[in-house]
Design goal:
The complex is a heterotrimer. Chain A is an all-alpha fold. Chain A has a single domain, classed as MetI-like fold (Orthogonal Bundle). Chain A contains 11 helices and 2 strands. In chain A, helix 6 crosses helix 8. Chain B has 2 domains: 138 residues, 3-Layer(aba) Sandwich (D-Maltodextrin-Binding Protein, domain 2); 80 residues, Periplasmic binding protein-like II (D-Maltodextrin-Binding Protein, domain 2, 3-Layer(aba) Sandwich). Chain B has 9 helices and 13 strands. In chain B, strands 5-1-6-13-7 form a 5-stranded mixed β-sheet. In chain B, strands 10-9-11-8-12 form a 5-stranded mixed β-sheet, with helices on both faces. Chain C is mainly α. Chain C has one domain: Orthogonal Bundle (MetI-like fold). In chain C, helix 2 packs across helix 10 and helix 4 packs across helix 5. Chain C is globular, with a radius of gyration of 22 Å. The chains are: A mainly alpha, B alpha/beta, C mainly alpha. Chains in contact: A-B, A-C, B-C. The interface between A and B is large, with 43 and 46 residues.
């Protein structure tokens, strides 16, 4: 990074530290904070969409859809997220490749499962094996987002399902009295009003999501925990210009500070949001909501 | 960050060899001196040098990918990369699932690291990385095994007195000798076989290419030079 | 080898009873079910112990947060913020490190680096913080009328708390507390995964699941088995907590009793 870093052996104190903290590896570490934030920013709306779909299905009039929605919610929430993370990425990847294989290579005569191997035609591979590395990384990131969204979508579905049921019955009955269809009632009456009820649950979910990110490395994303472990581990002089002992402590301390600060900021922002929403609802419901959010 | 187009890539292009599919090499990147990330965050070590040379000889473009050790085989058979080159010992269990090339290093013994040279292993607490052949070996001996998630932590356990000794590959433990009073016991165990590259069973053609390249490196002695340079095992 | 034989060999393997060696080849479904089930003993052990002990500290923390005395309130607030604001993953790391340092100084801390004690302490503190926040929220919503009526009847001090405030607080907090219990059981899978070492290959359900995934190179069997066990456990927890909920609300008319709904009202 800096000119004087060319010969790290001769450096001491702060100069050494400034070189050490700007190695390519450390830059990757700093970038991974961005990766985590980006993942959170993308996952939140996607999980919300999953949750909305799940909740809408769970209260559907159609039997199979209701069954699907309800079992999605209860199965995913009954299982520790870590158990999903251990095999979901590979399962999703194989699922996509299988579908593409069926669509793109109809005249393929070999079996897809050859013993333990999972073999699809090369046109169906995701990403194509000729694609550059960054495409592979984006695809891996996409799979991680999808896994997170599926798991947290179930939690969101539960919150939204509860919120939809919290919309006062009188409102719905009034809508019917005005001659609205079920569909119109859903989109014009329930959906616009439910957000106020869903927000406390959703903001808690956001906090859960933040604290699930240390498990990202299980999904093949090189996240902050991955780099903290890698950088903190003992480094021998043979393999690096900056040998040191077991420094994982310090790196994890940095992560701790990051998470605490992030939680604090989220709390403040969500608090403000909640206050503003409650202000608009100068009703008993808004008042109760304000109390419930504390 | 991992955009590591191997040197082989540049060479193939400049020498005008016919374009081949890119071969993706999967490694762990956390097992010095075999494979590790250097200060720039690139894959380096014995297997980086070896892999680049093998790709050159097999006339294929190679790309390096890092993957967690625990899921390195499931990701290979699932097709996320084409070969494993990660200090993986050739064992019977693994051969049921993937195919190996011939070994590129002779069997590397596993050795013990402890704070004193006269530890009685039978009554001692022996640390190992979880679900490794070493952990299974210690359990099989009827000793007390204590398993850690990473090799780093298993060595740290000896340093802080949680365990009396740690069992791991000798080449991994070598750099630790002398640090904080750690000594290597004279007793060694021959647990794993040699180390080879792993391929999908359905990928026989690619495996044959690399097998041939390894043979040619054995024949002209360049493999021994690499082994000596990184001090990973005994020579052939 | 019959499945019954496998169960008697490995059913209690996670606590060191039965076959010493884990199966190394020819893995059967029965072995996977038995060993992963055996590991659940640890998950239940951690969960139940932390929950029982955490209940009392949580009550204290909730009262502390509501206290007028800054010397009591501030530490309670910080305790809750620290444990709710950081991932459990990182809490385990620091706790293990702390216990290691302590034991090298004082012999008393010898057993603290083992999961059965060390991890239980971390989970206990963690759940106390979460439950403390829930109880605090409930304490704030105890109807003013209840306490005023208690004053009118001449209740005071501890009696008033025990007979009036506390039962109402429990009643209000119970649905959310049920969710906390479920999350806590899920969190126990992290103990051997990232925090504490496994001794003599005795670990929890996730430890054995990843053992099989590693040996068979097939993650699609052991992890779904693990998931199945946890769904069962979740159902049992919900069932037990509903019973207590019924008892807490037995004086209320049938229809106005709050039902236990599994809602992620809290964060981990």
């Amino acid at each position: 990074m800096f000119e004087y870093c060319a010969n790290p052996d001769s450096l001491e104190g702060l100069t050494w530290l400034s070189c050490y903290l700007t190695t390519g590896k450390h830059l990757s570490f700093y970038t991974s904070f961005g990766t985590v934030l980006l993942l959170l920013a993308i996952t939140a709306p996607v999980a919300l969409a999953f949750g909305f779909g799940g909740a809408a299905m769970a209260r559907s009039k159609v039997g199979p859809a209701r069954l699907f929605g309800k079992s999605y919610i209860s199965i995913v929430r009954g299982v520790p997220d870590i158990a999903f993370f251990m095999f979901f990425v590979i399962a999703l990847d194989q699922g996509f490749e299988y579908l593409r294989h069926q669509a793109m290579c109809p005249d393929w005569d070999q079996p897809i499962r050859q013993g333990n191997d999972f073999v699809v035609c090369s046109a169906a591979k995701l990403p194509l094996s000729t694609s550059p590395q960054w495409i592979h990384e984006v695809y891996g990131f996409f799979l991680a987002v999808l896994t997170f969204a599926i798991v947290f979508g179930a939690f969101a579905a539960n919150v939204i399902f509860g919120a939809m049921n919290s919309v006062p019955k009188a409102q719905i009955e009034t809508a019917w009295a005005y001659g609205m269809t079920t569909r119109q009632t859903f989109w014009r009456i329930i959906v616009p009003q439910m957000w106020v009820y869903a927000l406390p649950g959703l903001s808690n979910l956001w906090m859960v999501l933040i604290k699930a990110t240390p498990l990202l490395f299980l999904l093949g994303v090189e996240d902050i925990v991955y780099w903290a472990r890698e950088l903190g581990g003992t480094k021998h002089a043979r393999f690096t210009d900056y040998p040191h002992g077991d420094w994982r402590m310090w790196y994890f301390l940095a992560l701790l500070v990051f998470y605490l600060a992030f939680t604090k900021v989220s709390e403040v922002v969500l608090d403000k949001l909640m206050k503003r929403l409650s202000l608009g609802q100068a009703t008993a419901g808004g008042e109760a909501l304000r109390r419930a959010a504390q | 960050m991992k955009r590591l187009l191997g040197t082989a890539f540049a060479l193939t292009l400049s020498s005008g060899v016919a374009f081949a599919d890119t071969v993706r090499l999967g490694t762990e990147g956390a097992y010095a001196p075999w494979n590790f990330l250097n200060d720039n965050g690139e894959v380096a070590g014995f297997e980086r040098d070896l892999g680049d040379e093998l790709c050159k000889r097999a006339a294929v473009d190679c790309e390096w990918v890092t993957n967690d050790w625990d899921s390195i085989i499931p990701n290979l058979v699932s097709g996320n990369y084409d070969a494993i080159i990660a200090g993986m010992s050739i064992t019977e269990d693994r051969e049921k699932v993937i195919d190996f090339t011939q070994n590129y290093t002779p069997p590397d013994p596993s050795s013990y690291l402890a704070l004193s040279a006269d530890v009685d292993l039978a009554g001692a607490v022996v640390a190992a990385q979880a679900t490794t052949i070493q952990a299974a070996f210690v359990a099989g001996q009827g000793w007390t095994v204590v398993e850690f998630a990473t090799p780093e932590e298993s060595v740290a356990a000896v340093r802080n007195g949680e365990a009396d000794a740690v069992l791991a590959d000798k080449s991994f433990l070598d750099p630790f000798v002398g640090q904080d009073g750690l000594v290597m016991l004279s007793r060694m165990e021959q647990i794993g076989g040699g180390v080879g590259m792993g391929f999908r069973k359905s990928d026989t053609e690619l495996r044959a290419k690399f097998d041939k390249a390894i043979q040619s490196m054995k024949d002209d002695g360049s493999l021994n030079e690499l082994i000596a340079k990184w001090d990973v095992a005994t020579q052939f | 080898m019959s499945c019954m034989q496998t169960i008697s060999d490995y059913g209690l393997r996670s606590i060191g009873i039965g076959e010493r060696l884990l199966p190394t080849s020819d893995f059967t479904l029965c072995q996977q079910f038995t060993l992963i089930g055996s590991g659940m003993i640890w998950n239940i052990y951690f969960g139940v112990l932390a929950l029982l002990a955490g209940f009392f500290l949580a009550t204290a923390v909730a009262l502390g947060k509501a206290s007028a005395n800054a010397w009591v309130r501030k530490p309670s607030q910080w305790f809750v913020f620290l444990f709710r604001g950081s991932p459990l993953f990182i809490q385990f790391f620091f706790a293990y490190f702390l216990f290691l340092t302590l034991r090298s100084e004082i012999a008393f801390f010898e057993p603290f680096t083992a999961a059965w004690l060390g991890a239980t302490i971390v989970l206990f503190l963690n759940t106390s913080a979460y439950a403390g926040e829930i109880f605090y929220g409930a304490l704030q919503s105890v109807p003013k009328g209840d306490t005023e009526a208690a004053d009118a009847y001449g209740f005071s001090g501890f009696t008033k708390f025990r007979k009036i405030t506390w039962p109402t607080m429990m009643r209000l907090a119970w649905p959310a507390y049920t969710n906390e219990a479920i999350f806590l059981f899920h969190a126990t899978t992290l103990v051997f995964f990232s925090g504490f070492p496994a001794w003599k290959q005795q670990g929890d359900a996730l430890y054995y699941a990843s053992y099989f995934a590693d040996k068979t190179f097939n993650p699609f069997i052991p992890y779904p088995i693990l998931a199945g066990y946890f769904i069962l456990l979740t159902l049992i927890v919900i069932g037990l907590f509903s019973l207590i909920n019924r008892r807490l609300n037995r004086h209320l008319p049938q229809l106005s009793r709050p039902k236990i709904r599994y809602r992620p009202k809290l964060f981990r």
